[in-house]
Design brief:
Helix content is about 45%, strand content about 15%. It contains 20 helices and 20 strands. The strands form five sheets. It has a seven-stranded mixed beta sheet, with helices on both faces. A six-stranded parallel beta sheet has the order 8-11-12-13-14-15. The longest helix is centred in the last third of the chain and has 28 residues.
Amino acid sequence: MRFLLVNPYYPVSETPSPPLGLAFLAAALEAAGAEVKLLDFVVFPYTKSSFEAVLKEFAPRFVGMTAVTMTFDHAIQIIQDVKQINADILTVMGGPHVTFCAKTTMEAFPELDFIVLGEGEATIVELAEASGKKCAWNKVKGIVYRDGADIVHTGIRKPVADLDSLPLPARHQVPLGRYRALGMPISMTTSRGCPFKCIFCVGRKMVGPRVRYWSPAKIVDEMEYVNTLNFHQINIADDLFTADNRHCLAVCDEIVNRKLEINWTAFARVDTVSKKLVDKLKEAGCHTLSFGVESANEKILRTIQKGISLNQVIDAVTLCTAAGITPQVSFILGLPGETPETLKETVDFGKRLKTMGVHHGFHLLVPFPGTEVREKSESYGIRILSNDWSEYHANRAIVETPTVNRKMLDDIVVEWENKFDEWLGEIKRRMESGEATPEEAWQLQRLEHTVLIYDLMMGSILEQKGFWHSGDQPVSQREAFKVLVGRIERSTQYTQQQIVHTLDFAITSGNLRYVQRNGASRWEWVDFL
């Protein structure tokens, strides 16, 4: 049994991390004896011809895609390409978007054979095993499939109760080196489930209201391993890491007792942190906590069922700052009940937090399929402006309220983006005058490295220009470096100085290497150290 898993394109501006969900699926399939291959089009360019070559060489029985709403269009295009290349390959898609749009998606796209609903590890294994049995699809819980002209829904599978029973994510299937070279973080999870009922979120409906946990020892075993992969930080990607303080403290104690030095971040709620907890988080290496505050208007907070107060926000960020943890706060603009006055409240509150040393940012409401705010948009006074899934990225408005239009929402985000660009410009000016601190300079340099490296990756520049036949005569790394710089300079808009600076950084950080074998010289990205 061969199963090809695919991660569709996702903009690098969204700070993607190695695809953890697909790594879990790959691990479950491998444990069941399947042969697995993973393609990641976040860090590799997609072309139909190169994809066809992989399909012919690997010859999978299944091609499985994951997709959030924003990436659905890319994902379904690849599904359609699969069927054009080989109609006998079975296609399957999972993720929150199709979980909550299953019937309409199947009706609209006949190239899609199966949808996996919710958590997918057990379902995907049973689906693979059933492919060799005639008429066995109806026995696989948690899928939607076709039976002639009918669309069959086999019901929701219960979430995995014992998370320790899951194999560790198959990160060896993921092109880790490319994410590391881009300066992206790596993620892991310590729990699944969310007990809260925010009307704009699909998390609770996707993974269930009961929070399930991996054991602290297994969590820190994985964290210790992930730390060897040389990423600059680990993001704990739980919907809410601080849902249970006992769990948090036990994980932190395990880290401290092992004397591990790990830089990591997590998501929290302002009503779930205390002095004891943030002090322990800091001791265990957590340097940033991210809080979703959403609005500074108390009525809106009640409407969206957030269940927090502004006093709790101030208390939480104050505790973090005192403990040496950086608090980050995010707001969602365009929520039900939004008015020009409530927008000003939120913007002003963000400015107040900034004076306290708190990083903050704005997103715009996205009515994702499956959310209460979408399903009851009329009763909430929300007008949805677009069902173009590519616009569901939270950076430009796709909803309006009776008194707040698209432009009003976009103007706030654009102003915030412009201020960020001005801040980067000021750092550049300070660098040129010699006034910038090393920390300031590095923020801009790291961003410049990311942009150049991403262009090299998505243009296949290294693969095209970083290989040549050198014969039996050895070519030193220094000589090969000059050749590579010259070839890239002629193929891109970057200056020689920019290329040298970025490539030197990639080499010294262990993400780019030079190899010589069989009469050929080659530069390549490093996956595993």
